[in-house]
Specification:
28% strand; L-arginine/glycine Amidinotransferase, Chain A
Length: 246
């Protein structure tokens, strides 16, 4: 086996060796113990609760291509061989903060046409990706990829849009993911694939009212759960798999 870039965004085919993840020490340590190196970023322009969230600051579109917000120190990505494209500068508040918050899968992307970065959208179209428009600007936060055709979301608009496709979609309850004392987070923002058959979650599923249903759905699609910490599930800005062994 050799180390490769993850070919399909969010959907590793082997064991992940490098991932982008928010700088939450307990989560980083847990990922490191799984043999996964991590890169973390921070944007001072964003509010404290999301300023370290990878899904706000990056968008991997497959292989070595990745979009990043301006002013990030992306040297480690360049050293790893990535071609880093710079997006427009995000604003501090919604909807200007979600330019890169796009759920890119195998040949398709889930996005809000009113909030996506223009350069990112253009590059995805030129690369042959099919766009699935939704009303939710936090598109990646609100989507958890179980497989390329099996997804989990709490957002009704995302669920409705995906119901029109051939994908299997699980709609779960809102409110059980911790983001801050003021706001709840998203299950997609608390999770990410760390191998073809493993979904990592930043907390224990028993703290989510639909935890058993989530586990059953994943198991039905050949995916097991790896809980990265004890206690309630927290939104860490997604785990974005970048390189893998295969």
């Amino acid at each position: 086996m050799k180390e490769h870039f993850v070919k399909y965004p969010n959907l590793p085919e082997g064991r992940v060796t490098l991932a982008a993840a928010g700088n939450y020490p307990e989560i980083i340590n847990s990922l490191n113990s799984e043999g996964i190196k991590t890169v973390s970023f921070e944007a001072e322009a964003l509010p404290e609760e999301i300023c370290r969230h990878s899904d706000m600051l990056l968008c991997h579109i497959g292989d070595c291509r990745i979009f990043a917000a301006p002013d990030l120190d992306t040297g480690k990505l360049s050293e790893a061989g990535f071609s880093v494209y710079t997006s427009d500068r995000p604003g501090a508040f919604y909807p200007d903060d979600v330019k890169l918050n796009v759920a890119v899968g195998k040949g398709y992307y889930i996005y809000n046409p009113l909030t996506i970065d223009d350069y990112l959208n253009e590059e995805l179209i030129l690369s042959g990706f099919i766009g699935i428009p939704v009303k939710q600007g936090y598109s990646k936060c609100s989507v958890c990829f179980v497989t390329d055709k099996a997804l989990i979301t709490e957002d009704p608009s995302v669920y409705k849009a995906l119901q029109k496709t051939a994908y299997d979609v699980l709609l779960i309850s809102q409110g059980d993911i911790f983001l801050s004392e003021k706001h709840s987070g998203f299950f997609g923002g608390s999770s990410g694939k760390i191998s073809a058959d493993t979904l990592a979650v930043a907390g224990e599923l028993k703290y989510h009212k639909d935890g058993e249903e989530i586990e059953r759905f994943c198991r039905a699609h050949g995916v097991k759960i790896k809980e990265l910490k004890k206690g309630r599930i927290i939104d860490i800005g997604s785990i974005l798999p970048l390189t893998e062994m295969r």
